[in-house]
Automatic annotation (TrEMBL):
Protein's UniProt name: Uncharacterized protein
Highest taxon above the source species: Bacteria
Length: 94
């Protein structure tokens, strides 16, 4: 009888460890879930994410999305120009 109780306790402990818990407060990344949506959708945290959400919901067209991303890329290039290693040498392109 004692073995049966021990086996049952072990089985319950394994079930508790293996079954996923539903955390309604935060996502695994620690971001708050969107309360307004009510369906567990995480609000976008970047401008690119907001644009994708607008595209998926049909608020903007593909052309508008591409134009907005091109503008973001141009702005990013102005703010943070990318330089490849070796471009500072005169003989790098020769």
């Amino acid at each position: 009888m004692l073995i049966a109780i021990g086996a049952l306790a072990l089985f319950i402990a394994i079930l508790i460890l293996l079954l996923p818990r539903e955390d309604t407060e935060t996502t695994p990344d620690g971001e708050r879930k969107a309360e307004a949506a009510g369906d567990g959708v995480v609000a976008p945290t970047t401008l690119e994410g907001a644009l994708v959400a607008q595209l998926v919901h049909g608020e903007i067209t593909r052309t508008q999305y591409h134009a907005a991303l091109a503008g973001l890329a141009a702005r990013d290039d102005e703010r943070n120009p990318l330089s490849a290693p070796g471009n500072d040498r005169p003989d790098a392109c020769a």
